[in-house]
Amino acid sequence: MKYSVLGILGLVLTCHITAPAQAVKSTKAASTKTVTRKKSTSPAAQTTPEPVTSSLVVPSWLPPTAPLQPTATILTDLLNTKLDIRFDWAKQQLIGVATIAVQAHFYPQSQLVLDAKGFDVKSVRLLVKNNKEKNLNYTYDKRKLTITLDRQYTRTEPYEVRISYVAKPNELAAGGSAAITSDKGLYFINPLGTDKSKPRQIWTQGETEANSCWFPTIDKPNQRMTQEITITVDKQFKTLSNGVMTSSKPNADGTRTDVWKQSLPAAPYLTMIAVGDFAVVSDRWHGKAIDYYVEPKFESTARAVFGRTPEMLEFFSTKLGVEFPWEKYAQVAVYDFVSGAMENTTAVTHRQEDTQLTQRDLLDRDDDATIAHELFHHWFGDYVTCESWSNLPLNESFADYAQFLWIEHSKGTNEAALEQQKGLSQYLYEAQSKREPLIRYQYENREDMFDSHSYSKGGRVLHMLRKYVGDDAFFAALNRYLMQNKFSSSELSKLRIAFEEVTGEDLMWFFDQWFMKRGHPEIHVTHTYTNGQVNLHVQQTQDTTFTPLYRLPVTVTVWNNNQPIDHRIVVTKADQVFSLPASQHPSLVKFDAEGQLLGQIEEERTQDELLFQYYHARNYLQKHEAIEQLRPKMGDLSVSGMLRTALNDDFWAVRQNAAEALRKYKGAEGGAVRKELQRVASRDQKSQVRAAAITTLSSFSNEDFSSVYATALNDSSYLVVGSAIKALAKNPSVNTREQISALQDTRNETLLNALADYYALNGTVDQYQWFLRRMPDISDENLYQSYFEDFATLMLRMPPVERDKGLQRLEIYARTGSKFYVRLGAYKALSMMATTSPTLKATMRDIREKEKDQQVKAMFTMLQ
Hints:
- The chain has 27 helices and 31 strands.
- The chain is an alpha+beta fold.
- It has five domains: about 80-275, Immunoglobulin-like; about 280-380, Neutral Protease Domain 2 (Neutral Protease, domain 2, Orthogonal Bundle), CATH 1.10.390.10; about 390-515, Neutral Protease, domain 2 (Orthogonal Bundle); about 520-605, Immunoglobulin-like (Sandwich); about 745-864.
- The radius of gyration is 29 Å and the shape is globular.
- About 45% of the residues are buried.
């Protein structure tokens, strides 16, 4: 799964979400709290990793002790599931018959317990010889279906039960998390066709344990089954499910029945269906169907979005030495998906806003990283599955790292380094508020595992492992792990053993410190030169009460006479000095020259050393670091000269870094800098760089660049046009009002957000109506992040008599928004206006009191 987390929790009082692309320095002193802990003899307390003392100063990022979450005990093995299903669109229900083949795992069983959430169970029967059925007694509490068998069955006696039922997902209690925003399993989109902005669709989302909301099963990741799903739909719809379609037959009543069969076993959460009016664009790879399901109006660009899938299949199959094992590979774009994407075996689900792109959208972006992520899951997650959610990084860390591997292969080392930098920054951002082991046997909710630890941190840990053992050993070990555990569930020890068997080395130290312990190294590095040697002083400054003292193999590069010499060292102590030979005072000593370490590194270097680092950088990360470190000194001529040079770098992200670093520049080269930025804003080949230059020009207060912004309003890139609109929001120009007004009916969300920003500061009553009209076109994430706040900012300038309709709309979202953060964003917008209306305070109090999600209710209270 590619999760679409907003980084909201703990940050709800900020006006906008701070982009998690900024590394953070340690705030140890400011991030501690004193607590008193009592000793406990409970099993959960005994496994608590931190010391238990009567009075302990604990960092604020240390989560409270959570309950122990063991792997599910297997009493019965799933073997095969057959479903025969149809739908009641008006009631948003599924009518189904499930035939489930099972057998006792080891001990004889006289009872079968299935997960079945919110069903009407019509009958439960045992299949006996000659296709006859026998009624079975059962009890059902709307969560578990407990079936009493006719006798005891041993592990050598498979049997089948048939269950007739109706699934009612909309009657289930609302649930979900920041990563997976709903858990009702089965979703009807625009079921009555009343919303003209969306097609009618049905789709499912099973992770973590939500597929039991639409068919009875043993909904645990350590189960596996083959499957056959018979789907009856109106003839105008296409269907998609796991495996291959074995038949498709029209029916006399105007419906059609499709049968999908998957003959290889996979975990129940990976089962899916999708129904809709899709266009299907087809490719082939090694004789297997590779299909892309999109709305018909996006058929012409589907191949531009998904068309690198066959090349990815070839690349990953070759790298892993395991050819893609499944029957086919399909990808479908759906509306209102509850996460980023999902790796259902052979049939991946994507959010339509990420993958249904126009040619103009594709000028600014692609979805290759997500496509590679979900594809790699078909080895790590589908072929070999984590045995429990505690071991989720065995799925998600690998899929996250697949993004790096694909980008490295297809776009080069600089793009891969940029991907690595983003991942590190996302983890460090999250680490300000929590630090957990990667493999967590204690958590409150299994969906807590879907965070930047399991994804971004895990991906960076795998990169360090690759750098340590070398490419040949890394991929040989992955091959061994996959082959030894194929079509089964796994835990971390199996991965470690595979690496140890390949390398011949005991790697417990690596797996223990990076997978089983929380936190990361915080390193302070200085160096001196005396008597022909560099003395490199490395200190690990992290609090080792809660974080390990790390063993860190790392490369240090010493530059003499413009020649780099690499030294491989291993940091093992809290305070350590390494002596490295050097014939003269070096121009630069660079710790972690490859930029591989996951951690916070403070490395003392002079301005001259940082300038040398930029001009002699061996990778993107070194250039980026030099630019970031020298930003405060951009008034110095040598630094501004370096930044102007960086505006012409071969790699677009360096040019973007330089453009961003020059914001509010006040140095002696002001005229030359502004001229360079105008050139970049108009002519740089990369839209992200043009957009960054426009944003930087807008940071120069009381300066008129309206001609640049006016030109940019005609740019081919939505991103550039959006940046120009935001620049004009702060410095409006009479000459561009008509151009901006002409964009009001755009369908592009980048422009919609920019227009909302512009009208928040410059709008009138006419734009008040525009906000109301366009609100349904904004994604849930952007409603939260900016749109609601922009709307409230505009309303504060409206006469009170004009505000009622807007306040009513915000109240509806605050009470009934399907995503918790949508309710939160609407409530925050209401809070901005609370001082202007006595009755609004009473409304907000009622919203707080009626909110069912206790976490959201607490956030509401914080916003009072």
